[in-house]
Design goal:
Bound molecules: 4'-deoxy-4'-aminopyridoxal-5'-phosphate
Keywords: Aminotransferase, Lyase, Pyridoxal phosphate, Transferase
InterPro entries: Aminotransferase_I/II_large, Kynurenine-oxoglutarate_AT, PyrdxlP-dep_Trfase, PyrdxlP-dep_Trfase_major, PyrdxlP-dep_Trfase_small
Family: Belongs to the class-I pyridoxal-phosphate-dependent aminotransferase family.
Helix content: 25-40%
Distance between the termini: 59 Å
Largest sheet: 7 strands, mixed
Radius of gyration: 22 Å
Cofactor: pyridoxal 5'-phosphate
Protein name: Aminotransferase class I/classII large domain-containing protein
Structural class: alpha/beta
Shape: globular
Number of strands: 15
Length: about 425
Amino acid sequence: MSRPLQARRLEGIDKNIWVEFVKLAATYSKVNLGQGFPDFPAPDFLTEALTRALGGGNHMLHQYTRAFGHPALVKVLAQFFEKLLGRDLDPMTNVMVTVGAYQALFCCFQALVDEGDEVIIIEPFFDCYEPMVKMAGGTPVFVPLRPNPPKDGKLMSSADWQLDPAELASKFNERTKAIVLNSPNNPLGKVFSREELGLIAELCVKHDVLCISDEVYEWLVYDGKQHIRIASLQGMWDRTVIVGSAGKTFSATGWKVGWVVGPDRLLQHLRTVHQNSVYHCATIAQEAVAQGFQRELTLYGKPESYFVQLPKELQQKRDWLVQSLDDLGMKPIIPEGTYFLVADISPFKSDVPDAPDSDEPYDYRFTKWMVKNKGLAAIPLSAFYSEAHKNNYTNFIRFCFAKEEATLKAANDILQKWKQEKTSS
Ligand code: PMP
């Protein structure tokens, strides 16, 4: 056949960081702090809910359910988000359940972005935004968070990475259809402040731009920080789709249950994509997640709430990893949220052999060298940047700290041994 086999929209998006690095971690790592998933169990109340759903009297939970979300789940999600957003929600039109946040994002781009539309993406970004915009025929327009290291020699915080307001404003024009916001941000762990969100909101309203707000780490914020939902700011509800994930919320990434919350005027179009692609996600998993949310609704804000306990535990894990990395001289950027942490690998250039014939960036070479020689897996930060900007950010790697104490201890042992080898060489 002389015609190309693949559709034109797949051109240039065939590479995927996760396929390569998940394989490397599986082959070489003793400790995997690469891909973002917990290695500790999902909470008992969730797995018990699944067991009850499986073995209980309702055999219909093994059959198809409502396409746009199992009624029990959309109802409780609507109740929960009514509380969070301070507005009435219709479970049937303001909420839709998806196959993870991944499919929620796919629905957003397919439903709202057209040929020739521009979509602003804040860098660094969860890598699937760019190919998803392109597959929808849109043009991604990138705007970076710029690091401003503190002058007092203290460790950097994710809050020190900020948008330049003039640069951000310069990206909005009559072709701009949407901006993707991810707060708390993967990979940096940045939790956008009310002022930063206010600036984005003002520009969205001024230029009549939609906001795809990826909030999958909404409960994972530390040091008393508050996650602010951009949809709650003046003029934003009507133009925002909130994306969420039970995988991140209940430490059960394999379940692939996600959702969107937003105005019907936007969600009606997401429903069209959903009904013509996936139709719905596993009924039984939706039923168990619904029960998880029921529990959290009853315990809202109480110390026994999983949404209170999980960030407490993760903050301690973050602090352990910060300490271990800092000890070795791999300066961590302290994340305000998520379960990721970015660290500066610029002092390690002499450890990694030069590769004069390779155009692979330093962070990729470092990460591969580290997993093969030290047994520790991470992800290069430049994977979270566009082609045009990735060469400016090759001195960092990302670790995931949603791990058992034993895993973090094993990571610390590797880092301590590495430090001893460095000091004795
Ligand atoms: N958005 C962000 C920012 C993520 O980090 C992830 C998962 N790593 C997703 C969306 C996808 O979530 P899910 O597993 O629910 O599809």
